[in-house]
Amino acid sequence: MQYGYFDDEAKEYVITRPDTPTSWSNYLGSTEYGAVITNNAGGYGFYKSGAQGRFMRLRFNSIPMDQPGRYFYLRDMESGDYWSASWQPVGKPLDKFKSECRHGTAYTKITSEYEGIKSETKYYVPLGQTFEYWRLKVTNTGSKKRKLRAFSYCEFSNQWNTTQDQVNLQYSIFIVKGEKSAPNMLRYSIHENLYIQHQKNPAINDYMSEWIALAGAPMTGFDTSREAFIGTYGNYKEPAAVLKGECSNSEAFGDNSCGTVQADIELNPGETKEIMVLLGIGDANVEGKKTVEEFGTFERADQEFEKLIKNWHSKLNSFSAVTPDEDINHTVNMWGLYNCLITFAWSRAASLVYNGERDGLGYRDSVQDILGVSAAIPQEAEERLVRLLSGQFSNGGALPVISKDFEAGKQKMIPAEKFRSDDCQWFFNAVPCFVAETGNFDFFNRVVPYADKGEDTVYGHLKQALLFNLERMGKDGLPCGLLADWNDCLKLGYHGESLFVAFQLRLGLTTYADISKRLGKNDEADWALSERKKLDENIQKKCWDGKWFIWAIAEDGTVYGTQSIEEGQIYFNTQVWSVLSGAATPEQMKTCLESVKEKLATPYGLMLCAPPFIYASRDIMSSVVYLPGIKENAGIFNHTQGWGIIAEIMNGNGDRAYEYCKAALPATYNTKAEIRQSEPYVIGQTTYSTYSKRPGNTRVSWLSGAATWNYYSITQYMLGIRPQYNGLLIDPCIKHDWDGFKVERRWRKMNLHIEVKNPSHVSKGIEYIEIDGKRIDSSTIPAELLKDGSTIIAVMGKNALPVENERM
Ligand code: IFM
């Protein structure tokens, strides 16, 4: 079933049926002032933090799942009929109510047609501002004059700490006050000793008050008390004030509050009128007044909208492609990168699933997030990377979460058993990617503090990351798994050994050796390569099981992920990382990737392991708590899909890489939305596998490491435009029957036009490249040959040039 389509030209996803299988959401705003909005205008708002700054309420995991939100109710004042400008919450029958929702770059537009009235609502937060616009345009498409009344509605939190707001009602309700503060303005304040809040979290709770203003029409009524507007036994579908036809001008005082302004709109046939609501944080008499004075006209609102679009589109234009596959085009040209940018902004903190309990930057995921955004926002990527590097302790391990009030140099060392084994190994993906993107090789010499004490160059941080694991090796000479490796459900015991981290460490040692040589530190390079040699020997001694690599070795010596064990017999990560790290011999690579295909591939993506755990000890495989076929228990963990694609690309199998890519690609399910259920334009953390009862269902949209690896594997490996320290590598690995593809790529401030031609229909291999008409016989184009506007033509064929890949 299909509920919408991609409009790549406008950079929008257009939902044509509002009764989507789950709420399909979008994000507005920035990390200062953020918002989630669904295709039915459900959602919430937050200032800096979904947990501590939640000023607008959504009732999570409720029925329906996305209420309340940002609503406009419309009432025909003559017939008494009423509806909402989004299909929900009133939910008029769909044979009478037509609706379209366009989710775009940090804005959402919902148009509806009902009983001769067309409405268009547009929601966005202007760049750099802490308020939002809700614009409502209403057109009379009928032949008689209409008298309408519009009511806005949202629910403000009683307390910006979301847990307090939801749970601590004996306190939170009794601090709320709402009142009319000017002819077109409502003021909400929290009667609390604000300085206590400042003490708790000065960075966040610096407002704890909101305002809402109406522009374009006089305010003919209002409600600030939720109970007054909705009615004690009312609901969002039938709010008392809308039923009655007027607000009661309620002033909340120890009540739940709501944001309702009332406006009257009379329309002659064919006539259109517009009103808008401005809603923001701060004091109505200060921030509210100032904002309305500056931004309260339609002209200014239009300008702000243009600015917003320009800003987002410029980021998205850092990479665009025309390939023979439309689903890949939708992903590359808009949604893949947009998803990475939103994930980068909010980490795992705020969505329809993440309710704010995960505040701050989860270490390992945030380091990986750098891969997806380095080309689009190199400066922000650099700031984030430095912050993450400074979250590394001087012993080489990392803080599990970097909180908002984190200060480098002042963190207390965490207990030994709290360290994860993989956290800092992700540096060896993120740092080289960032340096190759920007060309700033001197970044390796930049001095960055440690979390607890002391400082070192970035290069020094990399060495500490290696030492951290090398100093914590188990009895088989593999790195200890510690609290967890990438897999949060793996509890091997402190001295249990993780083969996944062994492969990461191998990649780290290779990368470090390469960087050392470039920095003229040959002794360091030799050291790293000799450590790698020892590690390789240990891997080969203990970890090859004949058809695939094992999973891990628990502290008690039990080997997981072997043919002789029934549950979790084969583990995906260690197969693909054996390839990514270069540890697998060519023979092992072929064999273990065949095993992946045979045992783990499903039509919906690659399972994390198989068969699922049912009887395993929860103390070791805590994934056993999940239903079979879901999440870490033999589910399709979308974070890992890109690794499968890259491994097959390293194996030279473009057709299979394409098959894997398409199986897990959200856009593939645009015409099969009933299977995937989640938004076909964004990634989800987990897809239920064929071991489950509902294979293909996908959950936890938007914020996931899947975003980065999906986008990165397609752009840098499948399309193969991969920056290196000294040049731009063009090394695609595509479905063999593609004739080629075109890419516009921004690299080091140059806009490059790249065309890859594939006349011989190979999957991989560049025969030659022409740059502005000049032929070179290398698949890496030296940076000095490129200039802004350069045209690059790369011709694929059987007589392939060797590939000198300097980084993963
Ligand atoms: O790697 C983790 C991630 O950090 C949080 N979500 C689950 C993943 C796999 O366990």
UniProtKB/TrEMBL annotation:
Specify the Glycosyl hydrolase 94 supersandwich domain's residue ranges: 11-295
GO molecular function annotations of the record: carbohydrate binding; glycosyltransferase activity
Keywords attached to this entry: Glycosyltransferase, Transferase
Cell membrane: is it a keyword of this entry?
Answer: no
Query: Which Pfam families does UniProt cross-reference here?
Result: GH94_b-supersand (PF06165), Glyco_hydro_94 (PF17167)
Q: Does the keyword Glycosyltransferase apply?
A: yes
Which one GO biological process term can you cite for this protein?
carbohydrate metabolic process
Q: Which intervals hold domain Glycosyl hydrolase 94 catalytic?
A: 312-720
Gene3D superfamilies listed in its UniProt record:
1.50.10.10, Glycoside hydrolase, family 65, N-terminal domain, Maltose phosphorylase, domain 3, mpn423 like domain
Kindly provide the name given to this protein in its UniProt entry.
Answer: Glycosyltransferase 36
Specify the species.
Treponema succinifaciens (strain ATCC 33096 / DSM 2489 / 6091)
